[in-house]
Amino acid sequence: MKDRKGNSRSTFATLGASTHSDHNREENDYYATDPKAAKLLLDIEPELTDIWEPACGDGHLAGVFAEYNKLAAATDLIDRGYGKPNVDFLQSSHHHNGDIVTNPPFRYALEFAQKSLDLIPEVRKVAMFLRIQFLEGKARRKFFDEYPPKTVYVATSRIKCAMNGDFESTKGSAALYAWFVWQKGWKGETVIRWIN
Asked: Which residue from 49, 55, 141 is spatially nearest to 92, judged by alpha carbons?
C-alpha cells in the first residue's frame, strides 16, 4: 500500500510495525520508555516489590522503581551507564525472589517473558511494557495458552519509547503500548483494562 507520496513504508510505520519503520532500528533494539509508564504501573500494581529490571538501559523505568524503594536490581546486556552491565538476561540462571519488570527488546519479548517466569517463584509477578501487537502470533498464542497474562493494561494515551533514550528528538508515538502482567501459577481469563 502506497501513501499519497508513493511511500509504501509509511503506512506500516504509522502502525508501529518494526519491519516497516521509517528509520533504521537501533542495533540492540534499545527504545527507552517514558518514566511515566513506570509510575502508572506502580499506581495499578502497587504490590510489586523487589523488582529486577533486566533491560534497564539508562534507567528510565528502574530509576522510578528506585525512587519508590521497589528496586532490587537493574541489569542490561549493554553498558549504558545505569545498573550492572554485561548481564545477558536470556542466559541467566539466577533465580529472583521478587518481581521482574521491564520493557524488553521487542524482538526478544517472548523469550524475556518466558525466562522471567522461569526465574521467579509462584505468585510473584512479571510485568512487561510491550506493543499491543504482542497479543498476535502463533508462537505467542501457544505461550498465552500455557501462561495467560493476568491483566493487560492498555495505554489509552500514547506513551513514548525513544530510540537510544533520545526523547527530545522523538516526536509522538505511532505505536500503542500496554503493560502485560503475569502472576506465576495463575490460571484464568485475562482481564483487559485501560489506563491513563
From this structure: 55
pLDDT of residue 7: 42
In this structure, what DSSP letter does residue 134 have? G
Rounded distance, CA 196 to CA 183, Å? 22
**Number of residues that make up the chain:** 196
Residue 26, number of CB atoms within 10 A of its CB: 15
| Cβ-based neighbours of 92, under 8 Å, separated by 6 or more | 54, 115, 119
User: Contact at 8 Å (CB) between 118 and 88?
Assistant: no
CA distances from 53 to 46, 63, 93, 101, 180 (A): 16, 10, 15, 5, 15
Which triple of cell numbers denotes residue 25? Answer: 532500528
Amino acid at 167: F
**CA dihedral (130, 65, 182, 116) positive or negative:** positive
The predicted-structure confidence for 13-46, as pLDDT tens digits, reads as follows: 433 444 434 444 445 567 778 899 999 999 999 9
In angstroms, rounded to a whole number, what is the distance separating the alpha carbons of residues 187 and 196? 27
Contact present, 53 and 62 (Cβ < 8 Å): yes
